[in-house]
Amino acid sequence: MDYFNPFFLDDAHWRVQGSSTSRHSELNDVALADLSCGTSVDSPSKDNATMVSISTVFHAQWIFAGSTPDTILISSDSVLFYVHSHHLLQSSGNAFGSLLSKVHSSIAGSSSSNYITVRENADLLNVVVHAFYGMDSQKFNPPPEVMLESIVCLKKYGARLEQTIAPSTPLFDHLVMQAPRRPLDFYVTAAAHNLHSLAAQVSAYLLSFPLTSITDEQAEKMGAIYLKKLYALHHSRIETLRKLLLSPPEEHPANVDCGFVDQKRVTRAWALAAAQMVWEKLPDLSPSFIQATLGSLTTHVTCNTCKEILNAKIRQIIVEWSLETRNIE
Ligand SMILES: [Zn+2]
Question: Which of 109, 166, 222, 255 is the one with CA 20 to 30 A from 85?
Fold first, then answer.
């Protein structure tokens, strides 16, 4: 992991045993000074030494709204995140899961930093803290499961999800970017938290997903409305595709080179190719596949007028299919 700087604390002497010679030694000194006023880090230790680490973004000296942090969140794997209690209180509807209110009431009047041990590990807490500050955590490349958990965790800590995960926020963009790796899980989680914009964006990645494989648990979690929206999207696209493909190219007036029988031969070839594609019933049938399949028909046509009509019809289908919505309503 590259988002924190590790160092060791000796429980008896608060002594740095690790990276004191690093360029962050000054930062570690600040952390140690603060820790001597607070509680020790509760994590596995050897020989009375506990390794803790400090977030490289949320460290003791980072400034937000003109002030330095006054609270330290300690992850389950002993990574320290320096935060501003006033900002978290302002951004949370439940005083950060009631953790901040407890801290404030227990050490009211103290000028030292507050220490809060949370159950989340550093990977997850890192995404959550970034989200509370409206900051982008993409550079840390957290796995999809952490991104999914972050939504649940943000709700737990009282974040206003409709604002924290609103379109164009860093977290929204990050979730959409990760969604193709586990599209159904992202859709289910977004739906479960009534994050419509996110669910709508993610639904585009589910066009090739076989809806019949959705489990009862997933259906229950996303809810009837979002399950219906997904089925409606698939049905709508399949119907549109069917209408587009089953409408054959027009015929032109018969002439000596291309008569009624010749043109009927083209129409039958079109109908066969279209029927095969419709039979697939793929709501995510790609325009390039349609182009390749129908375009191949022209190689067997000698009449230039028929070729022009065929190509115009294919272009029209490609345009209309490309404009068809790929997202739930
Ligand atoms: Zn013709």
Answer: 166
